[in-house]
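User: I'm new to structure prediction. If I give you an amino acid sequence, what do you actually give back? Let's try with this one:
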Amino acid sequence: MNLSDTPHTPPDQPHFEWVFLALQRIFAAVNAADNRHGKPRRQAVRAKAACEIVGLGRSNFFARQNPKDSAWDPTFPRSFKLGATPHSPTVWFVDELEAWLEQRAALRSR
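Assistant: Good question. You get back a string of structure tokens that encode the predicted 3D arrangement of the chain. For your 110 residues, that looks like this:
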């Protein structure tokens, strides 16, 4: 999309609505460009959001990842560090967390 293709503010729309529509077009173009190789874009989240996705409290969430804990679940998604230092954020892929939930739900219906 070329910004010159976008008309100037029409007289019947307030300026902020026109800007909002233009930004939507720009973001849609950026998202399409990010996926030009056909690979789905994976999102990584930090612990707080990961706990909310799987519906576990913080303690239980980390217990499922600890082999020394009785709540350990070897099928639980593994985390990874975003950097090389110990202070780098730890994240989980959303699609892996959701797949784990689907797996747990499938066990329920048996």
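You can read the tokens as a compact description of the fold. Here is one thing that stands out. The longest strand covers residues 90-93.
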